[in-house]
TrEMBL record:
This is Sigma-70 family RNA polymerase sigma factor. Pfam families: Sigma70_r2, Sigma70_r4_2. Residues 146-196 form the RNA polymerase sigma factor 70 region 4 type domain. Residues 49-116 form the RNA polymerase sigma-70 region domain. The keyword DNA damage does not apply. One of its GO terms (molecular function) is sigma factor activity. InterPro entries: RNA_pol_sigma-70-like (IPR039425), RNA_pol_sigma-70_dom (IPR014284), RNA_pol_sigma70_r2 (IPR007627), RNA_pol_sigma70_r4_t2 (IPR013249), RNA_pol_sigma_r2 (IPR013325), RNA_pol_sigma_r3/r4-like (IPR013324), WH-like_DNA-bd_sf (IPR036388). Keywords: Sigma factor, Transcription, Transcription regulation. Belongs to the sigma-70 factor family. ECF subfamily. It comes from Micromonospora carbonacea.
């Protein structure tokens, strides 16, 4: 035995269980429906309709009384979305949010269209019974055109023009009936007539005299 050297058992290493390295779970694949839709993938259009069509239909049926109208609005929403897909920005919102925004506008358009149709129907009902020789077709057409165009005007302008057109009241009489100042009546009628003129020009109406019965400056 050599001095200064201690003889003994070598220290035993502790048995430690080997711990397996745990793998981080892979993130779920990113849903690329919005990107594929924007890129023009027709399969994505079908998938978007299957996924979000019910939501758009629910939006339409909650506002429109007619189920058929709601279904038409739903279809129009997806057609408009597909044609305008380049304007969709996935970084600014979800695809469903974008589709519902288009759906709301289509619902409003449908309500406005229904209101115009109702006014035209009412105008036809109020036409006098035809004389034996029959009414002048041009006059009937003019009244229908005017009724449709009036429905597009702001409420006050439409009200003043209807009193002048349908009831044949003068500006002064309209002011008396409505309690609106005479200057305001004239202003509403002037702006309404200007709007009608622009509409006829946009719609391609042939230049010529205004339709029979439209109010003049009185």
């Amino acid at each position: 035995m050599t001095a200064g050297v201690t003889v003994g058992h070598a220290p035993r290493k502790a048995n430690r269980p080997v711990t397996a390295v745990q793998q981080e779970p892979e993130p779920p694949p990113q849903d690329d429906l919005a990107e594929r839709f924007r890129a023009g993938d027709e399969a994505a259009l079908r998938q978007a309709y299957d996924r979000y069509g019910r939501a758009v239909l629910h939006l339409a049926t909650s506002t429109l009384a007619n189920r058929s109208d709601a279904e038409d609005v739903t279809q129009a929403t997806f057609v408009a979305a597909w044609l305008g897909r380049d304007t969709f920005d996935p970084t600014r919102g979800s695809l469903i949010g974008w589709l519902l925004g288009i759906g709301r506008r289509k619902v409003v358009d449908r309500l406005r269209s229904s209101a115009r149709e109702t006014r035209v129907v009412e105008t036809v009902r109020q036409l006098p019974d035809p004389a034996p020789t029959g009414p002048d077709p041009d006059t009937v057409v003019d009244r229908l055109v005017v009724a449709d165009e009036l429905a597009r005007l702001p409420d006050e302008q439409r009200r003043m023009l209807e009193l002048a057109f349908y009831d044949d009241l003068t500006h002064q009489q309209i002011a008396t009936v409505t309690g609106v100042p005479l200057g305001t009546v004239k202003s509403h009628i002037r702006r309404g007539m200007a709007s009608l003129k622009r509409r006829w020009e946009v719609d391609g109406a042939a230049p010529g005299p205004r339709p029979a019965g439209l109010p003049g400056a009185r």
